[in-house]
Amino acid sequence: MAPPPAQCFSPVSLLPQVIERIREEGCSVLLVALFWENQPWFPVCDAVSEHCPVASASEERPPLSGPRLDLAPSPGIVVPSCLGHQRVHVELPKGVLNTITQARAPSTRRLYSSKWSVFSGWCTARGVSPTDCGMTEVFSFLQELLDKGRTPSTLKVYVAAIAAFSRTTLGQSIGRNDLVIRFLRGAKRLNPPRPPSVPVWDLSTVLEAMKGGPFEPLQTIDLKHLSFKTVFLLALASVKRIGDLHVLSVSATCMEFGPNDSKVILKPKHGYVPKSLNTPFRAQVISLSALPVPDRKETRASFAQSGHYELMCLAPFTIDQVTLTVLPGNNVASGSNLTLHCEAKVSHSLPQPLTYTFSFLQDDQVMYSKNTSSSVVERSLSPARVFNSGRYQCAVRIYDKIKTSTSQKLRVTGLQVPTLKVKSDIISEGEVINATCSAPEEKGSLTFYFYDYDQEVKRAPSKSNSVTTTLTLQKLKDVYLHCVYVVIMHPDAGFSNKSNTLKVTVKDLDVIRPQISISPNANVVEGDRVQITCLVQYPSDLDLFLTKGNTVLYKYHTTFRHSFTVRAEDSGDYVCKAEKGNVQKRAVYGLNVTELFSKPILRMSPDKVFEGERFNLTCHSAVSSSEKINKADIKYTLLKEDRHIYSGANYFATASLATNGKYSCMAVAKGVTKTSQPLDLKAKVPVSTPVIRVVDRVIVGRPFKVLCEAENGTLPITYTLLKSHMSVAERRVVEATDKALFSNNYISSPEEIHSFTCQAQNEGRSIRIASHPLRAEVIVPVSKPVLVPQDITVTEGSNLTLTCRVQKGTYPIIFTWYHNRLPLPTQEVRSLEGSHIIKAIERDQRGDYYCEASNYNIEIKRSHPSRIGVSLAVWKKALIGVFCILLLVAIVIVLTVFLKKMPNPRRKKQATELSVKPSRPKSGDPMRMSLTLDIEDNTILNGTPCVMGRNVWSENVSGSDSDDHTDVDSELVHPQEVDPSKEVLVKKSIEPEYSGQNTEVQMSTPGVSEQAEGQAALEYAQLNNSEQEPA
Question: Which of 456, 414, 446, 437 is CA-nearest to residue 500?
Answer without folding.
Answer: 437
